[in-house]
Amino acid sequence: MAxxxxxxxxxxxxxxTQIMKAQDARRKQDLNLIQKALEHYYSDFGRYPEEALxxxxxxxxxxxxxxxxxxxxxxxxxxDYVLLASGKAYALYAKLIWTKDPVVTAIGCQNGCGPGNxxxxxxxxxxxxxxxxxxxxGVQPECGGPGNWFCFSSVCSECCPGSNYxxxxxxxxxxxxxxxxx
Length: 182
Hints:
Layout: H1 2-45, H2 51-54, E1 80-83, E2 90-94, H3 102-106, E3 121-124, E4 165-167, E5 174-176
Antiparallel strand pairs: 1-2, 2-3, 4-5
């Protein structure tokens, strides 16, 4: 009976690992699909789209480049898209569940990447690295507190250091924006 219990527990653990790997494969595929759409958008408009279009999980903001914005398969939430204020570079982040995936180390995210180093996988425009820290462009918001600073996604000045700042789409950084304060 004990042997049967051990075999059953081992089988359940292997099944859980395979589910995690499958969800991570989906995350990687989703980011690659979004990346292709972003590059086509850039080719047409000379800049990458605003955060609100890309972080609209399930939305069609990138149509005709991508019919529907994919969502994280387990969390059902948007992937974190960080656009530099110039619109000329971006990084797109996800958190892989199977942390032993060799790609985590290969892209330099074993100690975290992206806003708050909260992610371990990402893709980026050719002129940016997901592990470079460039995704932290902008300044820290003024609402919240240590470990929980925030601003209101895509809103000008609120929780930012002045009227010429706009909160990024993920609510993690205040970025200079010439259209704010006018």
